[in-house]
Structure formats: structure tokens, C-alpha cells
Specification:
Layout: H1 5-12, H2 31-51, H3 59-74, E1 76-78, E2 89-91, E3 109-112, E4 118-128, E5 135-142, H4 150-160, E6 162-163, E7 181-182, H5 193-200, E8 203-207, E9 216-220
Length: 224
């Protein structure tokens, strides 16, 4: 994938025998041994990136080198008493933001449904009509990040949702009954759904949750 990479790995990467599969053979219960291994692996990656810096890679090779740099640096920090220039590293006492968890699927992320149910992968979001159960929208996102949370995706669903109401033309006897209108009100399971549907046939509502005062404002439907 990267021209000359195999030869350079053999020449400059001395912290581990990369021809052997599996985890390095060290005493994993010894913190010093783990820190030494982390330092060796990070230094190997840094050395390899340095010798390959003059290579003119194609797009796939460029992505491979960028992924190596990211994975080598995202989970480490300078060891105690080090400024990062002496080659001593340790596992960082924090989780990197937007952490890459797989080199073969770089868009996968950590996620969890509970403290016990942890997963690596993606998050699927689905919007469905409450009456029919028909799926009206869907989106597959990374499993982490505020922009991929359920509220953020729901906001995008709402922004893209153009409501047509020909099946309710009898309930909305105005000249715009068949005109697409963007939804303007919010509700939740704390309100009687049927009652609100009938009332909203003639009005637009903005419902504020209890945390914001629990009020609602009614705006008469405009025929303009």
C-alpha cells in the first residue's frame, strides 16, 4: 500500500517483531513493562513516518500513513517527568475525543447502551409514523459525538420532514390543506396525543418542557 514500507519497517522499527501475529510477549501485569512497550511502539511509528515523509504516496497510501499517525498518538501522553522529546510514553489517563477504535474500519466508534453493554460500531436512527409504524426516515451515524446523538439526529429529521396532509383535508378546511408545510410544534408522551392532534388541526403549538417552565404558546394558523 505504501511504497517501500516493508523494507523501512524492517530497517527502523526495532521495538517489536512485527512479523509475528498477536500481542507482544511481555508481562502485562507489570506497569513498567507496559510503559516500555508503549514507548517502543510509539517511537517505531514516529521513526517510520519520518523515513516515509519523502515518499509521494497515492490517496490510499496517504490515508494509511495518516491512520498510523493517529492511532500511534491518540491514546498516549508523555511519561511522568518527560516532555515527549525523550521517547518515553505511557497510556493517556483520558479517552481521546472521537477515538478511532479500528484500523480496518476507521469510522467505527465506541458506544454503550448501559455500563455493561458496550459495543464498537455505529448508531442507527429511525423515525416512524406513530399510527402505521411505517419508517419515514433513517440515518446511520458514528456511535459517538454530540452531532450523532439521538436529539441531534431527531432535529435533522424534523428539519427534513415536510408534512403533507391530504388525508386530513376534512379536518383542515382551508385553502392550504394540500400544501406541504414544515412541522412547527413539539410534543411528548406526557400529553394526550389524540387531543393534541385535534387541536393542532387549527393551530400551531410550541410546547416547552417542564425544565423551561412547562408553558405552551399557541399561534393561530395563518392563511396568508
Amino acid at each position: 500500500m505504501v511504497p517501500g514500507a516493508a523494507q523501512q519497517i524492517a530497517a527502523v522499527c526495532t521495538g517489536h517483531d512485527y512479523t509475528q501475529p498477536g500481542k507482544p510477549s511481555i508481562d502485562w501485569d507489570d506497569p513498567g513493562a507496559k510503559d516500555a512497550l508503549v514507548s517502543a511502539l510509539v517511537n517505531d511509528a514516529t521513526a517510520l513516518l519520518a523515513v516515509l515523509s519523502d515518499v509521494k504516496p497515492d490517496e490510499s497510501a496517504r490515508q494509511a500513513l495518516a491512520l498510523l499517525a493517529l492511532v500511534a498518538g491518540q491514546d498516549v501522553e508523555p511519561a511522568e517527568g518527560s516532555d515527549g522529546t525523550d521517547g518515553r510514553w505511557r497510556i493517556a489517563r483520558k479517552v481521546a475525543e472521537d477515538r478511532v477504535v479500528s484500523t480496518v474500519d476507521p469510522d467505527a466508534r465506541h458506544t454503550r447502551k448501559s455500563p455493561e453493554a458496550r459495543r464498537d460500531g455505529y448508531r442507527a436512527h429511525v423515525a416512524a409514523d406513530p399510527d402505521t409504524g411505517i419508517i419515514t426516515d433513517e440515518e446511520l451515524t458514528k456511535a459517538a459525538g454530540t452531532e450523532n446523538s439521538d436529539p441531534a439526529v431527531a432535529e435533522r429529521f424534523l428539519a427534513a420532514d415536510i408534512a403533507t396532509s391530504p388525508d386530513r383535508a376534512d379536518d383542515q378546511p382551508d385553502s392550504h390543506a394540500h400544501t406541504p408545510v414544515r412541522r412547527q410544534w413539539y410534543g411528548d408522551s406526557g400529553f394526550p396525543l389524540v387531543t393534541w392532534r385535534h387541536r393542532c388541526a387549527a393551530r400551531r403549538f410550541v410546547i416547552f418542557p417542564a425544565q423551561l417552565g412547562g408553558t405552551r404558546r399557541e399561534v393561530p394558523r395563518s392563511n396568508a
